[in-house]
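Our preliminary data section would be incomplete without showing what the modeling component actually yields. Below, a chain of 200 amino acids is followed by its predicted structure, encoded as tokens that our downstream tools consume directly.
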Amino acid sequence: MSRPHCPRCCRPLGHCLCALIPRLSSRTRVLILQHPSEVRHALNTARLAALGLSNAELRVGEEFEDLPQWLAQPGYRACLLFPGEGAQSLQAFAGQADERPALLVVPDGTWRKARKLLHLNPVLATLPRVTLVAGLCSRYRLRKAPMPGALSTIEALVAALEVLEAPARYEALLKPFDALIEGQIAAMGEQTFRRNHHPG
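Predicted structure:
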């Protein structure tokens, strides 16, 4: 019999993170496109981010037929947070002489699954691509990043919003993420963590 889970954060009731999830506002509209394989992931930081941002929406799927309608929301200028050829820095995008707030589209999944989302939803290729500043380091100490600068979805969103919404800060969004990591380390034991994930 499975343990009861919190219907909001989807964590086991004994490890509910809801008390740590803030409710932060932003002019930027955030649209997270989550690959279905991420829904049951132990971290699922995209869900934590969507719960913590009042102007965010989380959609789960592989093909989003009504995506063109979502992207055409009046009063916003859409962009895709994903590296690639022709991508510009988020700072450059934010600095353009356009008063409209951003509609930030964020694919959520492994790199392979995220690329699949882009392939299955060709309208995403029509959006300007934006990237975060180089050299950011993930706080997720339990997994080796697949490449330099690779961040979890919630970390990438915090970094992006602190550019788009400057001088507002979004660090509070990482509180449940940090608690989640500390809980996983505690569950495996400090010695196991140090042996497997913290050389030196």
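The two ends are 41 Å apart (CA to CA). The longest helix spans residues 175-188. Preliminary results of this kind motivate Aim 1 of the renewal.
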